[in-house]
Design a protein that fits this description.
Layout (H helix, E strand, L loop, with lengths): L6 H15 L3 H10 L4 H9 L18 H13 L9 H4 L1 H7 L2 H12 L5 E5 L15 E5 L2 E12 L6 E7 L12 E7 L7 E6 L7 E11 L4 E2 L5 H37 L1 E2 L2 E2 L4 H29 L5 H26 L10 H10 L7 H12 L13
Parallel strand pairs: 1-4
Antiparallel strand pairs: 2-3, 3-7, 4-5, 5-8, 6-7, 9-10
Helix pairs in contact: 1-4, 4-8, 6-8, 8-9, 8-10, 9-10, 10-11, 10-12
């Protein structure tokens, strides 16, 4: 099977590189030091239509597939940037596209495609539930024609830079056939939420804005419901395969960046009269990191092709995320070792990307849960723990 890109797709790759070239290492160093959102970068992507590639043309988007979305995010990270600032606008789109009403799509999608509205945030995880989504307790009870929501969420990212929020909440506590039944998905206009959502930022080791939310008597209209009441868990899962594939693409981009920087440094850095790249102890780890990233990229392309064809891709999406994140982390450690003490210097950029690459070993799903998913759902072994990723 040939996973090479078409000429048009290669042009997309070049176009993203041109956008990223306007935001060099110095920009990302400053953003990281200031713990600031890369507003200018996200605006440039929005103006170019790159964050609306998955939105159908009838709603003002490019009408492209997950393959093209992968190209965008991989090239951002391969250019030294951080796609996490805006990647959610792509994968949160799945629930709205597949399960939203025509009225919801007409209302929101053209505005998102035009860059006038941002759907950058999703609230699923809770303090007491963690990765076990079946245990979430945030509850939306019917009141009149709408709902009133109360509960807590944690690790809800980019809320301060999003106009819309996807929220998963229980709408039924008892008499459910499965633990994951009785949950519903809501699309919330944050501009109208007011004090009903109290936000507490969580400081992390990387410049990745995330928050804890306390939701008190949040009133929602009936048309805030996305899809069928009680089927929210399955609707969220529809977006998780896309999320896994896109996160894998970012990790592959990171691995490429580490390898390219390490190759250049190993050629130029002379110690004991020769380039350090002449030593097998330096060149072998670089070569292995390169090969592992290429292997992960192939599985990512397979998962993306299956997704765009509307076929089952849960196993491929999960495995691609795991292999890509591990390849990126291997490349990060290799780069830090190749650079030696210089890798710790902020000006090289290695330490920033090193920290960023570490995130995807545990997020948005820990690789232990991915492994459990593959063991149970692919290999047929007994369930170990948790729900084990997407479906």
């Amino acid at each position: 099977m040939d996973f090479s890109l078409s000429d048009e797709q290669e042009r997309y790759r070049e176009a993203i590189r041109e956008v990223c070239a306007k935001f060099p290492d110095s920009y990302w160093r400053a953003i990281d030091a200031e713990k600031r959102y890369p507003e200018e970068f996200v605006l440039a992507l929005s103006d170019g239509g790159w964050l609306s590639v998955l939105i159908p043309t009838e709603y003002g988007g490019a009408g492209l597939g997950i393959v093209e979305a992968c190209i965008v995010l991989e090239e951002i990270n391969a250019s030294g940037g951080n796609g996490a600032a805006c990647h959610a606008q792509m994968y949160t789109m799945g629930a709205l596209l597949r399960h939203g009403t025509e009225s919801q799509k007409r209302r929101y999608l053209p505005e998102i495609a035009a860059g006038r509205l941002r759907l950058q945030s999703m609230a699923v995880t809770e303090p007491e539930a963690g990765s076990d989504t079946s245990r979430i307790a945030t509850f939306a009870h019917k009141e009149g024609d709408g709902y009133v929501v109360n509960g807590q969420k944690v690790f809800t990212s980019r809320l301060q830079h999003s106009d819309l929020l996807l929220l998963l909440a229980r709408t039924r506590r008892a008499e459910v056939a499965r633990k994951t039944d009785g949950m519903s998905l809501f699309l919330i206009d944050l501009r109208q939420a007011g004090p009903a959502i109290e936000v507490r930022p969580i400081e992390t080791m990387v410049n990745h804005e995330t928050n804890a939310l306390c939701i008190t008597d949040l009133h929602l209209p009936a048309d805030a419901l996305v899809g069928d009441e009680g089927a929210g868990f399955r609707q969220v899962l529809d977006g998780l395969n896309a999320e896994r594939i896109l996160i894998a693409s970012e990790s592959i981009g990171d691995a490429r960046w580490f390898v390219e920087r390490s190759v250049k440094y190993a050629r130029e850095r002379v110690v004991f009269g020769q380039p350090i790249g002449a030593n097998q102890g330096v060149q072998f780890p670089i070569a292995r990191a390169f090969m592992h990233a290429r292997a992960a990229a192939l599985l990512r392309w397979q998962a993306a092709a299956l997704f765009d064809a509307g076929k089952s891709c849960g196993a491929e999406a999960n495995m691609a995320k795991l292999l890509a994140s591990e390849a990126a982390w291997e490349a990060a450690e290799m780069a830090m070792t190749t650079y030696g003490g210089s890798g710790m210097a902020v000006e090289t950029g290695i330490e920033r990307k090193f920290r960023e690459a570490r995130l995807y070993l545990v997020a948005p799903v820990t690789n232990n849960l991915v492994t459990a998913y593959v063991a149970e759902h692919v290999l047929g072994l007994p369930r170990s723990y948790g729900t084990g990723g997407s479906a």
